[in-house]
Amino acid sequence: MANIAVTKKALTYLLGVCVPSTKQNAAKIRVRQLQFDQHLLMYFNKYEFFYASDPEKRCKTGDTVLIQNLPEKLTRVITHKVIDVIYPLGDITDPITGKKVVGSNYRDTIDEDSSLFGELKSKYNYDKAPKRGRMANKRDFTERETYMKYTDDPEHSDPYAINPS
């Protein structure tokens, strides 16, 4: 009787940022990992890129997403799937307090400071701001399909092209 070897593969979750991709029904995710240098005794950023299956096209360029590896590869390059969009681009929430963040300050403290020192007419109002997607094809071109550009022509610069080098 033949022994059947059963291999278990652990499902791992990774947090990364969506970058432009040319694959259909897939998102290219940049995951940051810290690599320790023995000589300097310091950690340095190391980036790895994964292709994750995203048939619903939930994530856009710049979104922070949670991905999970698949038990079997879908294709030669697609090894993960998108689980959830954690932070849409420009809308960051502190995971501990649950408050919205702008830069390194909470929105609440910005509002308190502006009420103490007087509000400016040029202050951005986050409560009245529309959700992301209103400026699609006007100023937000993340919906456009990207393609690989193999030549550099300074007269014809296309923002939707990805330079492979």
Automatic annotation (TrEMBL):
It comes from the Eukaryota. Residues 135-165 are annotated as: Disordered. GO terms for cellular component: mitochondrial small ribosomal subunit. Keywords: Ribonucleoprotein, Ribosomal protein. One of its GO terms (molecular function) is structural constituent of ribosome. This is 28S ribosomal protein S17, mitochondrial. One of its GO terms (biological process) is mitochondrial translation. It comes from Eufriesea mexicana. The keyword Metal-binding does not apply. Residues 137-158 have a biased composition (Basic and acidic residues). InterPro entries: NA-bd_OB-fold (IPR012340), Ribosomal_uS17m_metazoa (IPR039193). The keyword Transcription regulation does not apply.
